[in-house]
């Protein structure tokens, strides 16, 4: 732990939005936690802006580690056009990390962010110390090219029932799942001022193209990834089927797997306390 004098005690919901120019494109990000230590870089899901990171997870991690959450190119208040491929998002993320002056970081990639994290570590293994892959899957993974066809009916159901589609997409329809969904969605509304710009529909659709392409892409050689990886998901993920988490854990030589019971794609949000303590222990090892 760093000394209190070195710790930025700002909470996620009050963290200022910063920006940095990376090769002519402005990327927006928020940073909190101690000044010293290997930073944890957070990469988020399809359609997510800065306000879609779970405050409990960010604050939990920032209690002992510098945490940086960033928007992809063309998303929220970040400049440029959203890329059509995961590979381009990974190149942007590498350039962003380097622009901030870091030589080594830990990554937490959720869903689409987990695709990006895998590509980063394959491209630049020396930049990454440890990785957490949550609610995600490998290139060419089972059902990933069907994310759109699985999601659209539930997105429409959200519109028709005046609910955030994540209520249906990220959680099971059990009493547990519904309770967790309500709690998570209310946490996302806690920040009252200086909220990020919502994602534009064009960026949303470009990201979906990138997800489909990842689902159809040839398998990558994950056996070359020697870094420690924690794979986490709900046991009933219908967006990126949970079988993909098992596949990742099997193919990564230095991986451990956590599956949360009666939980969907948003398993780490439903079990945020357990996830934070597991992530803590994994990153501190």
Automatic annotation (TrEMBL):
Keyword Hydrolase: yes
Residue ranges occupied by any AB hydrolase-1 domain in the UniProt entry: 39-269
Keywords from the named record: Hydrolase
Coiled-coil residue spans: none
UniProt xrefs under Pfam families: Abhydrolase_1
Domain of life: Bacteria
KW Hydrolase (keyword) present: yes
Gene Ontology MF term list: hydrolase activity
Name of the molecule in the record: Alpha/beta hydrolase
Organism: Bosea vaviloviae
């Amino acid at each position: 732990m760093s000394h209190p004098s070195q710790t930025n005690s700002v909470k996620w919901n009050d963290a200022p939005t910063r920006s940095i120019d990376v090769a002519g494109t402005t990327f927006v990000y928020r940073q909190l936690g101690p000044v010293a230590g290997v930073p944890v870089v957070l990469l988020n899901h399809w359609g997510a802006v800065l306000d879609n990171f779970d405050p409990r997870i960010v604050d939990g991690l920032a209690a002992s580690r510098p945490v940086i959450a960033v928007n992809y190119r063309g998303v929220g208040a970040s400049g440029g056009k959203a890329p059509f491929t995961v590979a381009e998002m990974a190149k942007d993320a590498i350039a962003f990390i380097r622009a901030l002056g870091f030589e080594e970081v830990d990554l937490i990639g959720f869903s689409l962010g987990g695709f990006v994290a895998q590509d980063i570590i394959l491209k630049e293994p020396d930049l990454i110390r440890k990785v957490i892959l949550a609610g995600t899957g490998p290139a060419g993974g089972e059902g990933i090219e069907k994310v759109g066809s699985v999601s659209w009916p539930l997105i429409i159901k959200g519109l028709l029932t005046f609910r955030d589609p994540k209520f249906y997409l990220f959680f099971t329809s059990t009493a547990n799942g519904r309770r967790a969904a309500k709690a998570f969605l209310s946490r996302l509304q806690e920040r009252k001022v200086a909220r990020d710009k919502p994602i534009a529909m064009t960026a949303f659709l470009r990201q979906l193209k990138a997800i489909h392409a990842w689902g159809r892409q040839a398998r990558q050689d994950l056996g070359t990834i020697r870094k420690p990886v924690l794979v986490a998901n709900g046991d009933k993920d219908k967006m990126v089927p949970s079988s993909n988490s098992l596949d990742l854990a099997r193919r990564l030589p230095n991986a451990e797997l956590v599956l949360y019971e009666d939980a969907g794609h948003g398993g780490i949000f439903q079990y945020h306390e357990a996830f934070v303590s597991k992530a803590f222990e994994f990153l501190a090892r």
